[in-house]
């Protein structure tokens, strides 16, 4: 018995065309899942589809604004038309900013919260309802951040949004458990990705390394194992409400 075989399962990756989301999508596809890559940028989504196909997986790109209820409902219908099922939902949207607190406008606050928190809640409502009602169980994997607790300096709104993701994860784990739909979160440490490069000054990098016992950034592929583990009912069937750190020891560091 292969604990990590996802053959016959369909995984919907919201933000699957991002650096980290794309890598995890490849991991799931490589272990047999049919992968729906959902994002606004079609070109990036198609590039991830090709990567999944290159490892022997099956994938399809779906265009959507991940904060739009209408778009997500349409994508659910299109995925069901494609494979007839949804077994895994992964939420990995990410919008960051280093605006100082007293300069933060409520427009910026709303835009970050809309992507990082509202988008997760919407996807869990729409895809989660289908999973709960299908009777097949399933796995929801939310992508949080080491900034969720305790909050990092300089990224106030991002930290607050990811703390919200942790709370949503635990709440829904309790609510969905009777339907055998597990809800967990991965807490990545520092992985150089598009959305955080602009705030990684040399001083910031030095500070991060001092706080990371493994003394390096993570590679996007190093998130694949946690994603496949949480997606597989055989491997993690009794795991729900968990926040799993993949952070090089960042969360264990004090002085």
Number of helices: 9
Q: CATH first level: which class? A: Alpha Beta
What structural class results from the helix and strand content?
A: alpha/beta
| Euclidean distance between termini CA atoms | 44 Å
Please give the CATH architecture.
3-Layer(aba) Sandwich
The dominant shape is globular
Number of domains: 1
Major beta-sheet overview? 7 strands, parallel
Q: Which superfamily, in CATH terms, is the homologous superfamily?
A: NAD(P)-binding Rossmann-like Domain
Number of strands: 7
Report the portion of residues in β strands.
15-25%
Average pLDDT rating: 95
Q: Could you give the order of the helices and strands?
A: EHEHEHEHEHEHHHHE
Radius of gyration, in Å, reads: 17 Å
Poorly predicted parts: none
Brief characterization of the structure:
By secondary structure, the chain is an alpha/beta fold. It contains nine helices and seven strands. It has a seven-stranded parallel β-sheet, with helices on both faces.
How would you describe what is shown here?
45% of the residues lie in helices and 15% in strands. With 255 residues, the protein is an alpha/beta fold. The chain has a single domain, classed as NAD(P)-binding Rossmann-like Domain (Rossmann fold), CATH 3.40.50.720. It has a seven-stranded parallel beta sheet, sandwiched between helices. Helix 1 packs parallel to helix 2 (42-54), helix 1 (19-30) packs across helix 8 and helix 4 packs parallel to helix 5 (156-176). The chain starts with 9 loop residues before the first strand and ends in a 9-residue tail after the last strand. The model has no long low-confidence stretch (mean pLDDT 95). InterPro entries: NAD(P)-bd_dom_sf, Sc_DH/Rdtase_CS, SDR_fam. This is SDR family oxidoreductase. It comes from Paenibacillus thermoaerophilus. Keywords: Oxidoreductase. Belongs to the short-chain dehydrogenases/reductases (SDR) family.
């Amino acid at each position: 018995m292969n604990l990590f075989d996802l053959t016959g399962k369909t995984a919907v990756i919201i933000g699957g065309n991002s650096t980290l989301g794309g890598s995890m999508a490849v991991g799931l596809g490589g272990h047999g899942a049919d992968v729906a890559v959902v994002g606004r940028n079609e070109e990036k989504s198609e590039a991830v589809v090709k990567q999944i196909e290159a490892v022997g997986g099956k994938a399809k790109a779906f265009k959507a604004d991940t904060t739009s209820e209408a778009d997500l409902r349409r994508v659910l219908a299109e995925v069901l038309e494609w494979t007839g099922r949804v077994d895994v939902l992964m939420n990995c949207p990410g919008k960051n900013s280093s605006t100082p607190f007293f300069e933060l406008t409520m427009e910026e606050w709303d835009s970050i919260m809309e992507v990082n928190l509202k988008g997760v809640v919407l996807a869990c409502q729409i895809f989660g309802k289908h999973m709960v009602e299908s009777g097949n169980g399933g796995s929801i994997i939310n992508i949080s951040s080491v900034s969720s607790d305790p909050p990092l300096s300089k990224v106030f709104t991002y930290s607050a949004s990811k703390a919200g993701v942790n709370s949503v994860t635990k709440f829904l784990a309790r609510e969905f458990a009777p339907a055998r739909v597990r809800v967990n979160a991965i807490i990545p440490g520092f992985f150089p990705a598009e959305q955080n490069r602009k705030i990684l000054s040399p001083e910031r990098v030095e500070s991060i390394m001092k706080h990371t016992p493994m003394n390096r950034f993570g590679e996007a592929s190093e998130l694949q194992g946690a994603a496949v583990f949480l997606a597989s009912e055989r491997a993690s069937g009794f795991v729900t409400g968990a926040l799993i750190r993949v952070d090089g020891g960042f969360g264990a560091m004090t002085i």
